[in-house]
């Protein structure tokens, strides 16, 4: 069998870069405009390609972001999981829920850009946490959760500000009504756990 060497000129570099970028994670338009434009231009080809891998392209054109999601059905049950589910600690989940609820309130008020301060996040999180005499330690823990949510691209620091964050609408795709309902049930369990003496350092995956 003769194997033909593929020349680089035969490869659609833009399309390849777009697919590789999607495999790496979430694409936000304003951060990667060239990749975003390529995804829009080759959307059908990209969707067909990833469908063969058991993945679907979730694209929100108005909001300006997209990502790959594993297809969950009988045909894909035996496929290896290319996109792993990220385990979330209970406290990180509580922060995501707090931000999502804040987003719903702000949207209802007609706010287009949703901004929250670090102090507001502290207040919301402390409602869930056990009272402590060491608030500095507790706030450091909360800051570590904020950094994780920032790394997940659900929030981003405002320019020229270390204290305020914009909540990105990408969060709404991950924290839906069912997710909120399920976590509300966990919160009831968590409150019982706090009453029995549990603290912020005793995290349980969710």
Could you explain how this protein is built, in words?
There is one protein chain. By secondary structure, the chain is mainly alpha-helical. The chain is built from eight helices and six strands. The protein has helices at 13-24, 33-41, 43-51, 90-108, 118-126, 135-151, 170-174, 177-195, and strands spanning 27-28, 55-60, 65-70, 115-117, 155-157, 164-167. The strands form two sheets. A three-stranded antiparallel beta sheet has the order 1-3-2. Strands 4-6-5 form a three-stranded antiparallel beta sheet.
Instruction: Tell me how many strands there are.
Output: 6
| Average of pLDDT | 79
Shape: globular
* SSE class: mainly alpha
- Tell me the radius of gyration: 21 Å
- The arrangement of helices and strands along the chain is HEHHEEHEHHEEHH
Helix content: 40-55%
Major sheet: 3 strands, antiparallel
Low-confidence parts: 1-9, 200-206
Counted by DSSP, the helix tally is 8
What proportion strand?
Answer: 5-15%
The span between the termini is: 52 Å
Strand order of the largest sheet: 1-3-2
């Amino acid at each position: 069998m003769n194997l033909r060497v593929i020349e680089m000129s035969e490869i659609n570099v833009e399309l390849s870069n777009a697919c590789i970028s999607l495999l790496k994670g979430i694409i936000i338009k304003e951060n990667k405009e060239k990749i975003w434009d390529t995804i829009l231009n080759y959307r059908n080809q990209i969707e067909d390609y990833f469908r063969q891998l058991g993945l679907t392209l979730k694209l929100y054109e108005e909001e300006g972001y997209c990502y790959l999601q594993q297809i969950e059905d009988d045909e894909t049950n035996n496929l290896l999981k290319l996109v792993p589910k990220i385990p979330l600690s209970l406290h990180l989940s509580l922060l995501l829920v707090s931000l999502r609820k804040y987003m719903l309130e702000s949207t209802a008020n007609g706010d287009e850009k949703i901004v929250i301060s670090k102090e507001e996040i502290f207040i919301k999180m402390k409602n869930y946490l056990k009272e402590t005499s060491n608030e500095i330690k507790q706030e450091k823990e909360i800051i570590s959760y904020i950094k994780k949510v920032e790394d997940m691209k659900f929030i981003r620091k405002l320019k020229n500000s270390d204290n305020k964050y914009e909540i990105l609408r990408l969060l709404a795709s991950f924290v839906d009504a069912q997710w909120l309902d399920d976590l509300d049930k966990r919160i009831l369990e968590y409150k019982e756990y706090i009453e029995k003496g549990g603290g912020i350092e005793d995290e349980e995956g969710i």
